[in-house]
Amino acid sequence: MEKFAKIKELIASVEADVEKFYNANNGAAGTRVRKGMQDLKNLAQEIRAEVTEKKNTK
């Protein structure tokens, strides 16, 4: 559950940069969005691995 909470925090922290990139055409914000999305992908993959491991140990 801790990693899921981190995902929610990460999405909230990237939201302002998403708005800056899409609405204000701020290129630097786009770079931050891409980094945030990569971090999100990595966290999601870790959660997937944990769920699979827990499911298979039952």
TrEMBL record:
Q: Which domain of life is it from?
A: Bacteria
**Which GO molecular function terms does the record list?**
DNA binding; structural constituent of chromatin
* Matching InterPro entries: Hc1
Give the UniProt family note.
Belongs to the histone H1/H5 family. HCT subfamily.
Q: What does this protein do?
A: Might have a role analogous to that of eukaryotic histone proteins.
- Write down what this protein is called: Histone H1
> From what organism does this protein derive?
Pedobacter miscanthi
